Amino acid sequence: MDFPINTILLKTILEDTPAFMGIYNISTHRYVFINKVGLSMLETTDLDDFTAKYPRGFRKDKLNLETQSKIYQHLKENQTWIEDTLFETSNHLEFWGTLQISMFESEDTQYYLVRINDISYQKKAEQQLKDDNNRFEALFMHSAIGLIMVDREGVIILSNRFANVMFGYEQGELEGKQLEILIPQNIREKHRETYTNYTNKPQSRPMGIGLDLKARKKDGTLFPVEISLSHFKSGDKPYYISFINDATFKKKAETDLLIKTTEIQKLNNSLEKEVVNRTNALVETLKNLEQSKKELEVALNKEKDLGELKSRFVAMASHEFRTPLTAILSAASLIEKYTKSEDQEKRERHTQRIMNAVGNLTDILEEFLSVGKLEEGKVNAKLANFELPKLVEESTNDLKNMLKKNQQIAYQHFGETIVCLDKSLFRKIIINLGSNAIKFSNENSVINISTEKLDNMLILKVSDQGVGISEDDQKHLFDRFFRGANVTNIQGTGLGLHIVARYAELLNGKVFVESTLNRGTTFSIKFAL
């Protein structure tokens, strides 16, 4: 320093003080000393560093000449200037400090002794308190619901504006009064008991728990309210807060809603009855329509089936009847020409042709009659025990007259020989399947027939080495008048397999087919005994 002050005193008072301490030359407007605490507070290393970083001081609000003159005049008269002000470091960090200035003179030079205590924490606490008060003001006083705070004795400590307006009191008029003035006269005694119980065991109670509560205004008017309760402690003192909502409009709305709901319910009941009646009538009409639709569909399907059957019958009959009739006509014409005795052999040959043709016509008519009886439900199974191998052998003997050149029928049986079935229907099944196998197989081929008796089942198999049946044709194999695409040049009505399937059904049996084109076909029928 360049002025005479006792260095020990300087060390003690300035350096060891835990605050900013500086000596300011009033005439040069410069600090001539700043202690280490002050230099650290302003983030500087020494006095020169401070002078370079703070050429105009470190107050947030820079002092003009008028304010400086005012401070100087005040110090001359009162010795000390004290104020709280905001400071700013060279890095623009702000802090609050209590500025204390004293003026002294040394060797005809005037100085300020400047002390700054950092009060940022205190200011922050004050601001926090102020903010808390503002928040309390916003939340409590300006809340859009009535709030009343009471102590343990039931004395009103605070009420917000909404509550005051709700109960008809001026601001502050409720404070210091007993909470009972807001309770209807007839339930005050009960309220005291309830309040005592609540203060002994306080707990938060949400609004809208189904209580029908009323409150009393300043003029004595009662009105419905909804109340929610909460509690807290400040120190050792408990306080209780009531959140109060005027339920007048809500109750009115509930009443109106109840009336409207009742009216709507009555109307709904009436409408429901009408709807039920109309629905029942509609359902009945729909049922009748549905029944009529089904009947029409059945009739239409029958008509379509009949038309289809007629078409198939005409196509089949025109072909199947023409062939034997042509043969009969031709043979008869030729017989007339053979009048001599030596032509007897020729006459017999043509007579045989006529007999075969008549036999074919008889078979065709027999198939037609069988289908008709099946459709009309006139065919019934007559079960009886018989010797199965014997029946099959008799049937195969009948088939031998149909065999082509060098064709053979091989038959095998496995298991017990006695079965209980309709003997006539079973024979017709064998004849149909066997005749088909002969018809659709080439010369020099073998027709294999086998039967097997198991515990509760009889299995009949008829296999040939003929033309086979395509997969597409197998889907329609048992339809009436259906004939495979690869056998249209072979005589047949397309009824045989349909009759077989129906006879098998009457005997509790089911037909299965395995076939490969040009390699043969196997028909299997499994009868449940």
Automatic annotation (TrEMBL):
InterPro entries: HATPase_C_sf, HATPase_dom, His_kinase_dom, HisK_dim/P_dom, HisK_dim/P_sf, PAS, PAS-like_dom_sf, PAS_fold. GO terms for molecular function: protein histidine kinase activity. Residues 279-306 form a coiled coil. Keywords: Coiled coil, Kinase, Phosphoprotein, Transferase, Two-component regulatory system. Residues 316-529 form the Histidine kinase domain. It is an enzyme of class 2 (transferase). Residues 132-186 form the PAS domain. It catalyses: ATP + protein L-histidine = ADP + protein N-phospho-L-histidine. Its EC number is 2.7.13.3. The keyword ATP-binding does not apply. It holds the Pfam family HATPase_c. PANTHER family: SENSOR HISTIDINE KINASE RCSC, TWO-COMPONENT HISTIDINE KINASE. This is histidine kinase. It comes from Arcicella lustrica.
